[in-house]
Amino acid sequence: xxxxxxxPAENTADREIVLTRIVDAPRDLVWxxxxxxxxxxxxxxxxxxxxxxxxxxxxxxxxxxxxxxxxDGTDYPGKSIFKEVVKPERLVFTHSGGKKGEPAAHFESTxxxxxxxxxxxxxxxxxxxxxxxRDLNVKTYKSIEGGEQTLGxxxxxxxxxxxxxxxxxxxxxxNLTRVxxxxxxxxxxxxxxxxxxxxxWGPGGFTxxxxxxxxxxxxxMRIHMRAPDGATYPMTAIFKELVEPERIVFQSAALDPxxxxxxxxxxxxxxxxxxxxxxxTLHAKVLTITPAAPRYLAGMKMGWTQSLERLAAxxxxx
Length: 318
Description:
By secondary structure, the chain is of the alpha+beta class.
């Protein structure tokens, strides 16, 4: 009877190292810690090591050049090439480097990130060319202990960036599309005429007792949204670009009770004709943010989604 073929996993088991760790942070935050060099320099490497990053271009075929500095002053220069970058699930790169005068380390490193509620399971897999190469690396560079310590340092670092990540504008960016059963000229007017804007702006149940729109480049917009509970949320904006009936760009600021900006957003609205209907694409990018803003920005997607629903109802009956 012929011998059963080994599975691919069995074929590589003797030339790989696999480490896992569950960290108390959401997957998006873990991804930021691993792919942003400003974060990587704070935790990469075994205990006592530091790292200097010359270049870190996290994209397929991007290069990562760095030097690890040991606690005894020894340098370990290395170079990696990214092969796969699947945000926020998977990162694969080749690595070569090591201590001068010692055998160089060559392996492929695969990091996978599995969301487990608000925690993340990290699996780190290092695949070597052969079993002897794996064993030599373990002996020369103590890669198992070093890998475990590196994951431990990452786990300790994550709480330090959780607050800064919450207040990072990069976290808040929105893209929405919707097709309206109305001509493009009417949809454009609904964005630029205050009589129309007041009828649909804001989430469901909101009204706009103040709605002033000066639709021209450099013109201002001022809206006070009133929630069903009576709370008022004022905002101001300046139009950056108006191309009738195709494109509207404005920079807005949500204001606190003292009239100071909580956050600023650049919003771009494009309108495309689709056989008498209108395809709207909305891109909102947060530019600045204050510590009090995240609780408001958490509802940005829902707020715009409901606003566009109200806009659709408004233009389709106009």
